[in-house]
Amino acid sequence: MGKPNYNKIYSDIIQLKFPDKLLVCQKLLDKKELSVLDVIELNRKLFETSDLSSEKFNQKLRSYDRRSILRMLDYQRDNKLNNSQLATHFNLSRNTVTVWKKRFLVKNKK
Known about the structure:
This protein has helices at residues 6-17, 22-29, 36-47, 52-60, 66-78, 83-90, 94-109. The chain contains 7 helices and no strands.
């Protein structure tokens, strides 16, 4: 089973429900392939949920691929953030960031 075509999905959503937000999202939609972080950013721009309970529920359903995790860890390094700051920025748990660092950064150094 292939990956969903997020470009097509979000283009259709914008065309049907949010035509006024096309310019805001155009840069992301112009990418050939959207990463997990791009999809989250599009969701944030389009739906702007302020409901805390739905945010918590949606967070439980997220999954990240290796490339997205490494991009987040690079973001942490480039911006000199600690684990708590990175977790807050991307709406993650501190423990998740710690596990990722152990899994993806320590292995690469050996």
